[in-house]
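testing teh design pipeline on a random one, pls ignore if ur not involved
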């Protein structure tokens, strides 16, 4: 197509599917990239969020050797695995000095401040607490929430990909589309939104087939129950009440504004949010003096 490809990007575990790449798959990808002189950017942001003991995560950095060390770059951060996205802390591992120098120059404008670096260093040094306390509790909660969500989806008769990592389930809502188009996918997305449930439509992830959605399950049980009660309404109305009326479990989140949304729909949504902000007395009730 006339496009010069420079790099291969791998997200492991994968988002939104939740796939975990095997060592052989990783090796094949890296060997492929070496043959074509491609850089490989490996994002392992969910590496500690593999919540099922039957699944095994393999880091690229755990391989015996990298086929092309100068073109292999690995990223990780604490925003997902430690649920502190507001800290904005990430790491880059690379043996390529030119890449390291380029990223270091960017840190003049987007660096991590000293106090944050100090606190994160203290956190990551406490291996015993991370391994024996935090990860065990986090994995148990993620697994329980995932089991709850997927069991309810089975009851509702909605197909999905069953994976063991990440915070999301890739769900097949194609049977609820009146026509197999991305326009109809957006209409379904809006119907869920009208019921106060926010999902990620497949178009936002460059999905080639309309009707797939990503649902986030990493939340507390009472919120998941409320989310599924709301998500059940569009499904039941589309099946003329034939779907099971179970209390379901999903609190759904959106990765980005779907690219298939029309400007008018986005404008209406922004206008609604602005109107709600203007009509709210939250700012009046929560002044800076009260916070102080």
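output:
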């Amino acid at each position: 197509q006339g496009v010069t490809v420079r790099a291969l990007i791998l997200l492991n575990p994968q988002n939104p599917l939740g796939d975990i790449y095997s060592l052989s798959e990783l090796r094949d990808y890296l060997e492929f990239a070496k043959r074509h002189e491609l850089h490989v950017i490996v994002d392992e942001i969910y590496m500690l969020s593999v919540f099922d003991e039957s699944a095994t995560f393999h880091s690229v950095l755990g391989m015996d050797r990298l086929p092309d060390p100068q073109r292999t770059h690995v990223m990780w951060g604490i925003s997902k695995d430690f649920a502190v996205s507001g800290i904005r802390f990430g790491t880059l591992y690379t043996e390529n000095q030119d890449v390291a120098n380029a990223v270091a120059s960017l840190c003049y404008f987007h660096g991590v401040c000293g106090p944050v670096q100090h606190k994160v260093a203290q956190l990551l040094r406490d291996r015993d607490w991370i391994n024996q306390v935090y990860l065990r509790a986090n994995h148990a909660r993620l697994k329980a929430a995932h089991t709850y969500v997927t069991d309810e989806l089975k009851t509702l008769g909605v197909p999905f990909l069953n994976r063991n990592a990440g915070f999301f389930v890739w769900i097949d809502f194609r049977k609820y589309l009146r026509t197999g188009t991305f326009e109809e996918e957006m209409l379904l997305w809006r119907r869920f939104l009208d019921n106060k449930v926010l999902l990620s439509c497949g178009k936002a992830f460059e999905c080639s087939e309309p009707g797939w959605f990503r649902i986030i399950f990493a939340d507390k049980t009472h919120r998941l129950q409320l989310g599924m009660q709301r998500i059940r309404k569009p499904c039941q109305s589309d099946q003329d009440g034939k779907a099971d009326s179970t209390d379901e479990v999903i609190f759904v989140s959106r990765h980005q504004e779907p690219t298939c949304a029309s400007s008018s729909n986005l404008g209406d949504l922004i206008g609604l949010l602005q109107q709600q902000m203007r009509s709210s007395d939250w700012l009046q009730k929560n002044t800076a003096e009260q916070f102080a």
